[in-house]
């Protein structure tokens, strides 16, 4: 668990690229039966309001695509089937005889991977970016901005909140009014929690640099990183509540 948190932390600090962090995480699942992934997936509740939002989009004539950089494609497709979604993309996780090998691949884990997938979809289906809406929560989705006429941040991190057309927290169905083209741009202000998270991000990035100048021993650095990782995890959990 700590290794997974550390890899995610290193990715958030941009020390590790997404693909490297994900490979490190999924390597830990080598030998795990695929059925356990499905069992865990079935325990996770769908966010209230998602079905209503998707229904409204379909009534308006939209096609819906789920694109995930971190979830295996077989689980994204399972979710898509439950929600009557048109397209589903996730990372390719190798499975041999029902057993996970831990090896991953696919466009979504590449640099700007989500944008690569969406761009291919728009081209293949001859859809226009002027009719494309992206709903997102973190900075991994920034490359999608150039491909979408409208961007909506739901429980977004500070970067997405500052850059998207609409940003909101709360009930997922509160997104629905923003599908109306007459609604003006709306962003949410920075909170103390948002500022706290950014301080953690910046401080964590400076840890290895300062340790060189201050001659801090490796055990002290390890403790500082552990504390910072814990604070970061708490801050991310509170963002999603």
UniProtKB/TrEMBL annotation:
Q: Which PANTHER family match?
A: PHOSPHOSERINE PHOSPHATASE (PTHR43344)
Pathway(s) per entry:
Amino-acid biosynthesis; L-serine biosynthesis; L-serine from 3-phospho-D-glycerate: step 3/3
Listed A to Z, the keywords are: Amino-acid biosynthesis, Hydrolase, Magnesium, Membrane, Metal-binding, Serine biosynthesis, Transmembrane, Transmembrane helix
Q: Does the keyword Ribonucleoprotein apply?
A: no
- Report the top EC class in one word: hydrolase
Q: What is this protein called?
A: phosphoserine phosphatase
Q: What organism does the UniProt record list as the source?
A: marine sediment metagenome
List the record's Gene Ontology CC terms alphabetically.
cytoplasm
Asked if Metal-binding is a keyword of the record, the answer is: yes
Q: Which cofactor does it need?
A: Mg(2+)
Give me the segments passing through the membrane: 219-238
State the EC number(s): 3.1.3.3
From the UniProt record, which GO molecular function terms apply?
Answer: L-phosphoserine phosphatase activity; magnesium ion binding
What SUPFAM superfamilies does the annotation carry? Answer: HAD-like
Q: Name one GO biological process term.
A: L-serine biosynthetic process
| Segment forming the signal sequence | none
């Amino acid at each position: 668990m700590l290794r997974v948190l550390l890899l995610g932390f290193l990715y958030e600090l941009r020390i590790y690229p997404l693909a490297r962090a994900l490979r490190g995480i999924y390597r830990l699942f080598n030998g795990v039966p695929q059925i356990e992934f499905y069992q865990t997936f079935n325990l996770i509740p769908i966010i209230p309001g998602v079905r209503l939002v998707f229904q409204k989009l379909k009534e308006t004539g939209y096609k819906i695509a789920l694109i995930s950089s971190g979830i295996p494609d077989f689980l994204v497709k399972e979710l898509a089937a439950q929600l009557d979604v048109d397209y589903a993309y996730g990372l390719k996780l190798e499975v041999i005889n029902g057993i996970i090998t831990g090896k991953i691949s696919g466009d979504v884990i590449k640099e700007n991977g989500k944008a690569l997938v969406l761009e291919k979809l728009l081209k293949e289906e001859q859809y226009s970016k002027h009719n494309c809406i992206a709903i997102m929560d973190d900075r991994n989705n920034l490359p999608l901005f150039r491909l979408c006429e409208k961007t909506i941040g739901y429980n977004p991190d500070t970067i997405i909140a500052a850059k998207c057309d609409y940003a909101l927290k709360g009930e997922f169905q509160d997104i629905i009014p923003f599908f109306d083209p007459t609604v003006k741009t709306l962003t949410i202000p920075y909170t103390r929690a948002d500022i706290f998270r950014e301080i953690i991000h910046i401080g964590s990035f400076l840890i290895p640099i300062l340790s060189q100048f201050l001659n801090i021993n490796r055990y002290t650095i390890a403790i500082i990183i552990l504390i910072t990782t814990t604070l970061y995890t708490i801050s991310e959990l509170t963002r999603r509540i």
